[in-house]
């Protein structure tokens, strides 16, 4: 079989690399074969960058600098990492961080951790320089450096060390260079022939990278790289061994936190501001606490308790700190910073839908917004994005000046009378209106402007009331778990546009497990389709994509 | 008088020749009207000011054209700078077959001269980057952008496509980028090149040499992305080169000590009111000390989220939900937010005008364009997009005028600004936005 042939080729090359490592301390391989192609380059997110540096060099190395923002498209910021480049402002920051990290790694107090030391720090030592560079080159690039690459990096080190009579100045330059190359700043997915028709598959180092960032949100560790190097990762048994290992680790938490942070659009909390006159309870640090609450809830239910992810829509259990206790108006059981609490049945609370994060992110500074909430919920949980309203939409109906006491609900419902508006508002408004018992900072309220809140809603013939009704509606809606599965695929392999048809077996496994996140992850990570790459793009769409960039 | 080679070159072509050869003729054209003090030419600076959701028609447009226009309600905050301003009303924004992307098409048309196909993306470099290529060479930063409402994404400066050049989101981050590590105060006596920069430069040129290797085995869209990447590497290299040379400056400014703690920057008016002038001051100092010649300040996203405490709607939501007062004929709360947006622009101009340079002020040596995304936010219309400019571009831009709409497309302003700044350009924009005739009456 062709796959095997390729893995063997790769394995032989890797073995050559390994022998080189053993012989001279250099992890170097020949240039990649002609049939391989880079099919995706994803810019590391801030978290991925920080985690990678901490795992490669140690937590004591500080990363000081700012990162270019990402953009959300198709519901995920992860998608944009495969589209965005690095601007001059972004590179300026990467460059500064690289110099700073390289300086810390070659400082007196760190040197003992390097793989070797020169006899005399004032004299250049080629063997040691080469060993350090190949060691960190492998870790930073998530693949061994080729012989030519290594020669160049060592050459820089030699030149600078010669100019400065300082071995570590040379090493510092080369490390800084590695950190400034796109091979580190972007993680690449390299496709090779799969042996099955025109479909291609990811090579073993790309698999290691995809798995590690998906499951741990960080760079592959030594064992994973080793299994890539030996070709083991491209065998079913080898893949299963690594997937099981990665999933059994507590680091899975970090991986899934990153996924849910993106899925639930929690980065919105970075720029949320609330009206301090109307909502004085919203203080500094509230947004961070709200974000943490949601991440604890998700990982607690889906990972630690191995629960049904549909219950994220209905659970009354959550995690709060003192700040959140004030907003939720519940007593805080004082042991530690965070406590798991359960809202009473009559609290009206229902899973993620009524957490402060969701309620505050999709609201105005001084007012709740059923439309914003409805649009966001439809997109996040049902994968149903809403188009912009028409430009010249007449808001007069919605804003009847002669009847200021009319509730927001009544005003919104007037959309139903207009066919153009109704197409979207019929979907978004019921979702949002059922959450009207919660204000812009997530507090419960029985009335709005003196009017009793009516949180009943009807969507596609199904009637329900309040957040708990909405929670049950989403819990029972098959689109919701399917949407999570689809977004997880896209998150893991953003170069691909996934539809449900692309992974029927994975979805079946997810379903028959009772919608357990671990079952979904495992089945996905073990399936061939997750690593599949379509045949080379036809040139016209490729050109169109490139044109869109310019 | 001491004239070294660098000054001589700057005299010939604003310093551009020192780094990269411009066509000989362009240099002659560019040097026209260059202000000089003590034989030294002062550089001309460019900048933008962005606020979302526009102004109110009936409250900002003066009734008369030319220089004798009467002050209007919404221009009042700018009254102290009236003689240094130009107002452009009635500009058309023809989008041809492109969609009218809400809160995007107008601003993209104004800043690129091209109606965008996709919201959130620019189809070419934005005007500040186009101008920066000509006037911004040889200084540390090709451009610097800041967001007074605290969001790095609120930048309308781009090299094209989906990438935007992120804005500094707080006064401290802006300070650190400008006057933190890598900055040497040219107003102080002591000045020597930092030897670490030389080493960092060697590293960067080694990185650049890997371009060819990186480009292999890539699809064309990723090739374009890597092309941008190495362009960014090159710009950082140029920045290092600039950091090795002492800038020549005229203005007497004192770089403040770093703020001991950062300020909250967000959409709440009380914060905007404090953060905007502070960022404006830092930007003005960066221009005066020749750290950059292009400074962009934004105070909001296009869907302007500015809010006054106690107002549950805020600016953007008010544009859609506040009723038009039948007696006044406009949305009163929206009008208040419009006015406050102009107060923030005035805060920027105040800082620029406070720094003496040559025979005038930094503002006189600059040209700033204030622009927005909608002409009438309530219905997302773009025709009649308000644009204001400030500053005399070192004497090459006449000021004090109200230019009344004569069916000109919005791109005519961009073309005029570029002409005033010495950019060699015959036409600007695409399709119906393409223009060949600047407002010649404004060019000195």
Task: Summarize the structure in words.
The complex is a heterodimer of chains A (550) and B (444). Chain A has 550 residues and is of the alpha+beta class. Chain A folds into 3 domains: 248 residues, no CATH class; 211 residues, no CATH class; 52 residues. Chain A is built from 23 helices and 14 strands. In chain A, strands 2-4-5-14 form a 4-stranded antiparallel beta sheet. In chain A, a hairpin with a 2-residue loop joins strand 12 and strand 13. In chain A, helix 5 packs across helix 6 and helix 20 packs antiparallel against helix 21. Chain A is globular, with a radius of gyration of 27 Å. The N terminus and C terminus of chain A are likely disordered. With 444 residues, chain B is an alpha/beta fold. Chain B folds into 3 domains: 31 residues, no CATH class; 347 residues, Alkaline Phosphatase, subunit A (3-Layer(aba) Sandwich), CATH 3.40.720; 54 residues. Chain B contains 14 helices and 11 strands. In chain B, the strands form 3 sheets. In chain B, strands 5-6-3-9-10-4-11 form a 7-stranded mixed beta sheet, with helices on both faces. In chain B, strands 1-2 form a two-stranded antiparallel sheet. In chain B, a hairpin with a 2-residue loop joins strand 1 and strand 2. In chain B, helix 7 packs parallel to helix 11, helix 8 packs antiparallel against helix 10 and helix 12 runs antiparallel to helix 13. Chain B starts with a helix and ends in a 24-residue tail after the last helix. The N terminus of chain B is likely disordered. At the A-B interface, strand 2, helix 3, helix 5, helix 6 and helix 23 of A face helix 8, helix 10 and helix 12 of B.
